[in-house]
Design a protein that fits this description.
- Its EC number is 1.21.4.-.
- It holds the Pfam family FA_synthesis.
- This is Glycine/sarcosine/betaine reductase complex component C subunit alpha.
- One of its GO terms (molecular function) is oxidoreductase activity.
- InterPro entries: FA_synthesis (IPR003664), Gly_reductase_pC_asu (IPR012116).
- Helix content is about 40%, strand content about 20%.
- The protein has about 375 residues and is an alpha/beta fold.
- It folds into 2 domains: about 280 residues, 3-Layer(aba) Sandwich (Isopropylmalate Dehydrogenase), CATH 3.40.718.10; about 50 residues, 2-Layer Sandwich (Alpha-Beta Plaits).
- Strands 1, 2, 3, 4, 5, 6, 7, 8, 9, 10, 11 and 12 form a 12-stranded mixed beta sheet that branches. A 3-stranded antiparallel beta sheet has the order 13-15-14.
- The radius of gyration is 23 Å and the shape is elongated.
- The two termini are about 45 Å apart.
- The model has no long low-confidence stretch (mean pLDDT about 90).
Length: about 375
């Protein structure tokens, strides 16, 4: 019954949107909390003024001190009070979204940022940049991928290309996403500009903006957003990009876009526009639909394969000279991959090549080892 009510509510909302688009386009109302910036209240007001003059297709509501600056405002006395007021305004639907600093999201919600890449000037989504989708690394990155796809679609990228940054957990993430794709969830994988041309992205791809959506863990994403935002200023004043972006979760119901306390007016101006685009594109509904499609394709079953199981002692075969390198195993999976080979009587060691982690075996047993690892799901 609850699901029926939700479907009816969404249908009426769609009808209302259609009526509005037939006569006039509804202007989004985007909040901006004014307290909390390292650069002061004046910088936040300047950001609102920049956005108002540059875009002018959405309304800005300031949440902060009483200032006569031409914008609608809601008076609060502190950053903490500003967050409380922001949440209540969102719940009461008096604003459609809000840009703020240093907001704590629950587990299961991560922010999807957006940068301007220096190599090409392209916009690229970084998924994700703060918060966490799950406590497990691969599970979190897989869900980050879905969140990034949802945000891309909400801002007008109908079939976004997706690349997985080559960090710890990337191979497991890629493998899970490929299985999800094989089961029916559509993913348009990007190809690295490097010679190997695979879906795992390198630093070069970050600079050039190879994929529409770059998937990574949130700590790496957090660093990337900060570096790309402030590499021209020395770090204490962020000018480039769109900030950490909206908090996305499977059932999260508030559009809250994050910027850093070091963010300057030029960046916050773009963060306001990013939030307005997400509001207009109904990003939270799109995200919910994307997660539902992934669930229907077996997301949870796929993720269970990444859960750690009890590790039993395995006898290591006699040591051999190992010169055959097998790439493509995630660094977090090296030990277990070695155990798989030991169980089959093949001596192996873990190592690190110039392109990442490798399993080392004797040259005579290389092909057999690759076959065993493939059968075990490691390649």
């Amino acid at each position: 019954m609850d699901r029926t009510k939700k479907l009816i509510a969404e249908a009426f909302e769609d009808i209302a949107d259609g009526i509005e688009k037939g006569s006039f386009k509804k202007r989004s109302r985007i909040g901006l909390t004014v307290y909390g910036s390292e650069h002061g209240v004046e910088e936040m007001i300047k950001a609102a003024q920049l956005a108002g003059s540059k875009y002018g297709d959405f309304d800005i509501v300031l949440i902060g001190p009483k200032i006569d600056c031409g914008f609608e405002s809601v008076e609060v006395s502190s950053a903490e009070e500003g967050h409380k007021k922001m949440v209540s305004l969102l719940e009461e639907k008096k604003i459609d979204g809000c840009v703020t600093q240093h907001f704590d999201f629950p587990i299961g919600v991560s922010t999807v940022g957006r940068i301007v890449t220096p190599g090409s000037g392209r916009n690229m989504i970084i998924s994700t940049t703060t918060g966490t989708m799950a406590t497990g690394r691969v599970e979190s990155m897989v869900k980050n991928s879905i969140a990034g796809i949802a945000v891309a679609k909400s801002i007008g990228i109908d079939n976004p290309t997706v690349g997985v940054l080559n960090v710890d957990g990337a191979r497991g993430t890629q493998r899970a996403l490929e299985e999800l794709q094989n089961r029916g969830y559509k993913i348009n994988f990007a190809q690295s500009l490097r010679k190997n041309g695979e879906a795992l992205m390198r630093g070069n791809d970050l600079l050039s903006g190879t994929p529409d959506v770059m998937v990574c863990d949130s700590l790496t994403g957090n660093l990337l957003i900060k570096i790309f935002a402030a590499y021209t200023t020395g770090g204490n004043y962020e000018t480039l990009g769109y900030g950490y972006g909206p908090g996305i979760g499977e059932n999260y119901d508030k559009l809250i876009n994050i910027v850093s306390r070091a963010s300057g007016a030029p960046l916050i101006c773009e963060a306001l526009k990013y939030c307005a685009m997400c509001a207009e594109g109904k990003v939270l509904r799109v995200a919910k639909n994307e997660f539902q499609k992934a669930e229907a394709a077996g997301l949870e079953e796929i993720l269970k394969k990444d859960k750690p199981s009890k590790v039993e002692e395995v006898k290591v075969p006699p040591k051999e000279v190992v010169t055959y390198a097998i790439p493509g195993i995630d660094i977090l999976e090296l030990d277990n991959a070695c155990r798989v080979l030991w169980e089959k009587g093949i001596y192996s060691e873990s190592g690190m090549g110039c392109t990442g982690p490798v399993i080392l075996v004797s040259s005579q047993k290389g092909e057999k080892a690759v076959k065993i690892l493939k059968e075990a799901g490691y390649k």
